[in-house]
Amino acid sequence: MTLELDKPKVVVVGKDARTDAMAEACRRSRPGVELYAISQMRTPGLAEKCIDVFPVEKDREERMAVIRNLQPDLVLVGPEEPLAEGFVDELEAAGIPAFGPRQDLARIESSKSWARMILDRYGIPGNPAYRVITEVADLRSYMEDLGDFVIKPDGLTAGKGVRVFGEHMSSIADALKYAEKLVQEDGRVEIEERLEGEEFSLQTITDGKSFLHCPLVQDHKRAYEGDQGPNTGGMGTYSCADHSLPFLTEADVAAAYSISEQVIAALNEEVGHPYRGVLYGGFIATASGVQLIEYNARFGDPEAMNVLPLLEGDFVELCAAVTQGRLGEVDASFASKATVCKYVVPKDYPDPVIDPGRIAAPDGLCNQDTTHWYWAACRQEADHVALTNSRSAAAVGIGLNLKEAETLAERAASQVEGRVRHRSDIGRPEIVQQRIDHMALLRPGAQRVEAHAA
Q: Tell me: the pLDDT tens digits for 231-289?
């Protein structure tokens, strides 16, 4: 069965700009789509694009009641929490196709230790030195053995639970305090060697046997200009027209592709049914090659906003094909263009405040060919848009090169009114050149690239 209906009924799930980007991709590929949303709040983007937005918080029974009432042809799951809870399993049991992995496969994100085990068990390269520790007494000795290390909670932390020794913790005593807390709360903690290099993201759309690798993207987690301040859910991202990144070699790209493809095959074998949806790998290029930081079981946020506007093909049909195991039959690719995404956030983000205020975006901010505007965790009120303490909206510029894309993204982000800010340096030549030069220091024999050529 294909979704050849002119007006398929599709439900998107989520409250972030990633979900807005998925909704836009549905509307762009199927103008007549009957689009609905299940979201924790009535965000402006979903309110505009959808026939109705159902404000279901986290009640699983209520969420399924909405689905049973609508009887959609397809459900697209944006965030990780519903996947980890088994939402896709519930949908499939009700006979409703869902884009996203089942609960046992979503464990690749919800348990970091299980993800490491998969690579080890199936002999897949990419794991750093690591240990999953369940006894507080074992923490100090392994930390001292590594010398330079990272502490990771085993479960979901919205990208904000990782602590790096020397950055977030200045002493072994500080590290022990945090790690002991995680052991007490979760029963385990993962300690890994700290890797030096440049991080990048690879999102692979798969039905378990075929693969559509998205353009590579680099995220910026730090809250402030120049990569300063605390980690966030992501302040912005960029991708290049050649679908690689200027600090990566062809061998790096091939290694990331290979690791993800091997992991998908391993997951199929381990669990006994195919991984269907998006496998999003956070990788790092080091002096000795590409290593895995972690896997996520869905599109990235912001990374989805870089790749979905470039998709050439029918997004609704693509997602339907994934659910039916026939991705290889679908004609889909990505335009050879560069993108820059800049998240607009409340002025105090990531610190919470009682009343973040309002936000206003001028009309005409979005142009399908060059500029996209995606609303995130804002509330659409009767006469205004209210900020929350989460990220507010994302401006995406699309151009023939990074310079052109960054100019467009910055122009859009700068026009927003309210107590908001954004990182203006994302995608600019100077910060990209820092990444290039960093890798050149780690790989002295590598050819030096200029950022303005990307």
A: 898 999 999 999 999 999 999 999 999 999 999 999 999 999 999 999 999 999 999 99
Residue for token digits 């997951």? 267
Nearest CA among 111, 62, 16 for reference residue 378: 16
Burial class (CB in 10 A: 0-12, 13-18, 19+), 448: exposed
Contact between 191 and 151 under an 8 Å Cβ cutoff? The reply is yes
Dihedral-angle region of residue 360 (phi above 0 means left; psi in -120 to 50 means alpha; beta otherwise): beta
Strand pairing category for 130-133 and 378-380: unpaired
Q: Domains in the chain: how many in total?
A: 3
CA atoms of 219 and 159, how far apart (whole Å): 12
pLDDT > 90? residue 349? yes
CATH of the domain at 23: 3.40.50.20
The owner of tokens 């072994």 is: 172
Instruction: For residue 58, give its domain range.
Output: 9-105
Portion of the chain with pLDDT greater than 90, in percent: 82
Domain for residue 187, yes or no?
yes
Q: At what angle do helices 402-414 and 429-442 cross, to 10 degrees?
A: 130
* 25 found inside a domain: yes
What is the per-residue pLDDT across 405-440, written as a single tens digit (0 to 9) for each? 999 999 999 999 999 999 999 999 999 999 999 999
For position 394, which CATH number holds? 3.30.470.20
- DSSP assignment letter at 227: G
Residues 6+ apart with CB under 8 A from 243: 215, 216, 334, 336
Q: How far is residue 72's CA from residue 427's CA, in Å, rounded to a whole number?
A: 39
113: three-class secondary structure by DSSP: helix
Reference 197, options 418, 447, 436; nearest CA is 436
List own/partner pairs for 54-58 with CB under 8 A and 24 or more apart: none
Alpha-carbon gap, residue 369 to 377, rounded angstroms? 25
To the question of pTM greater than 0.90 for the whole model, the response is yes
pLDDT of 1 reads 43
**Cα dihedral sign, 306-73-277-210:** negative
Rounded Cα gap, residues 322 and 316, in angstroms: 10
- Give yes or no for residue 447 having a pLDDT over 60: no
- Taking the C-alpha atoms of residue 394 and residue 274, their distance in angstroms, rounded to an integer, is 33
